Model the fold of this input.
Amino acid sequence: MSEIGTASETIVAIATAIVPQQGSIGIVRMSGSDAVAIAKTLFHAPGRQPWDSHRILYGYIRHPQTSEIVDEALLLLMFAPRSFTREDVVEFHCHGGIIPVQQVLQLCLETGARLAGPGEFSLRAFLNGRLDLTQAESVAELVDAQSPVAARAALAGLRGKLAGPIRRLRGTCLDILAEIEARVDFEEDLPPLNEGEIIIQLENVLRELTEIVATSDRGELLRTGLKVAIVGRPNVGKSSLLNAWSRSDRAIVTDLPGTTRDVVESQLVVGGIPIQVLDTAGIRKSEDRVEQIGVERSRTAAQTADLILFTLDAETGWTPAESDIYFQVKERPLIVVMNKCDRITSEQLETVQKSILNQLEDKTAPIVATAATLNHGISELEEGILDAVNAGNLQAANLELAINQRQAAALTRAKVALEQVQTTIKNGLPFDFWTIDLRGAIHALGEVTGEEVTESVLDRIFSKFCIGK
Done:
């Protein structure tokens, strides 16, 4: 690739996260034709340990000129083509920390390797036929997964669960194109084209494509998660709600209104969806400059959130302050949370709920009763959130297909092109016109798996990977 270098070079990178005073093992990965030779220069394996593929050697990493021991380590050998990149790959398993792995990396660079670019190991796996493009993207998605469900979806992609259907649909389109082009070139020598069969095949391809494209929202939700803001006036229990929900003491809780002066964040997983919860400062008018800044940040958080938890005190019910706040957030998807419901009777709670409904413009907005200090109503709140984002059945959904934005764009182009083919057939245009959009659909489907892809697209995809991948 233009930004990464040539595939003939031997590349090296640190393949594990390096954190000072944390982590017992750090891995330096090297791939290329000179990987084994460089390893033999740097690694001393005592005794008669065989340098065979898929062996782990024990020994010492030494400076090639001074013979000074840099680290005691293990060396993992994987010879081509039985490796991730289908090239010779070696991994130095060093002691964790910054210094050992940095020293080993530097020795590899001084001995002839080049520092790998972002995602270059995965890029070589793609270029050498070890992975298709959907599998390569799944590697990055697995690394970035924020929930077990997202990890399972990425693993499904890595196993080819997306590539298989796409290749099959592309194959069907290629067969249709071959049939049509044969009639264009040899119409007099072949029986008439069965247009009815072609129409049925196109309908089947379009139906399956539509189902796959529909998973893009699910895939985006699994990858990026949901931003939820807890909004309300001071002292309605927003911080208590966050603490109960996250099972922590992230937010300071007191009886004094205005305790929270800034936005407090917590990361949760609900129904397999990563959720970033924002506990905001109570929204009210104040002469306190610091509190004013907190209130302004609360408003900003509310405007950028995917979902608002509009929280009020069930004991005091809807007040003019709630009306002011509601006016600011009513355009956002929201759930009304009646907190402190343990302080009133069930009859009073029902009355409060009716009064809230009278104030809401959207009479279908969910209303959930909670008692945060007692951890009551949290499961009902989570169910409400899943329902609000139409993801209540996410756990049971077919997670083997959850496409990303790039894949969705290409598949949408393929879908539009095939719909145009249907229109062309319906209008009775000649076969030559059929093939134009059919080729476009085939090209778009090939972009998904990598059969049809430009260098600039590959650069853009793999530049988002971490260096060691």
User: Anything to note?
Assistant: The CA atoms of residues 105 and 163 lie 35 Å apart. The first helix runs from residue 35 to 42. The chain is about 45% helix and 15% strand. The mean pLDDT is 81.
